[in-house]
Amino acid sequence: MTGFYMKNRHLIIGSRSSKLAMVQAQYVRGVLKKFYPALDVEIETIKTAGDKIKDVALSRIGDKGLFTKEIEDALLARRIDLAVHSIKDLPTDLPEGLKIAAVPEREDPREALVSEQAFTIATLPRGSRVGTSSLRRRVQLLHLRDDLNISDLRGNVDTRVAKLKNGSYDAIMLAYAGIKRLGLKLSLSVIPIEEIMPQAGQGAVGIEIRDGAEEIEKLVKVLDDADSHLAIDAERAALAGLEGGCQVPIGVYAAITGDRIDIKAGIFSLDGKDGELAGIEGSKKDARKLGQSLAENILNKKTACRILVEFKNMWRVPV
Q1: How confident is the model over 178-196, as pLDDT tens digits?
Q2: Could you give the residue numbers annotated as active site?
Q3: Spatial separation of the C-alpha atoms in residues 223 and 44, rounded to whole Å
Q4: How many beta carbons lie within 10 A of that of residue 225, not counting itself?
Q5: Going edge to edge, which strands form the sheet with 171-175?
Q6: 8 A C-beta contact, residue 164 and residue 171
Q7: Complete domains list, the chain, with CATH
């Protein structure tokens, strides 16, 4: 099937149908068309379980593959030739026969606090209602401000912003990368990574293909940014080592300067009171190994072990 598509210069990209997902898929399509003008590139939208379940907190249903499985199924079934994902949505254990072939240059990985008054975390009034669908964001906010009322917020970016504007929330937390990619003009403050650690892969897009699809792999290499790819490899290696097989709030960020990579990661308790953070640095060529080592270092700490036990003993994380 892939050979047929390439002979006919036809390529099918699989993507979610949200505005942000389509912006990312169209970017990939645009780059491919720029480098291969004769290539006919089609985008097929695929609805995932996460798109269908909108009234339940992600932490109650688990988020592994919620926004990727149906797209990966289409890729394995050869209905599409490549998939475009937000890396943060991709589980660390990819289905057998699939791989990440390219990671374009990463957008800003930081979080943004959006409010009509452009509050910072420090200036939010006591008891403010802050909306987020992320357990990781929730517990880190509580660690900084245990007086805040953190409430679940699902939906696409437009839906979340609308709920803020109608007064349902005093502020909401969103990935800054999504705001920038959508070109939204919002009152916000960008949160330093030192205050709220991002999710592994936040701000990055991944191009997933089938193993052995050599023609397609060669095509998408024009999209790959080597340092972004290495940083993502390091973050995902650290995440894989820390996950413990259950839903755990974990933040990871890797920064590359020259030939060096600096990786930081943290694991946090449900109430936000406790956490274990650590860092490691070394040669960027050892990115994945360093990520694995960082996870091992954190898991050797008593606090991290206790937090993992806390989550492993829970069938579902309460909200």
Answers
A1: 999 999 999 999 999 999 9
A2: 89
A3: 19
A4: 15
A5: 149-152, 129-132, 171-175, 111-114, 188-191
A6: yes
A7: 2-104+204-224 (3.40.190.10), 111-191 (3.40.190.10), 235-312 (3.30.160.40)
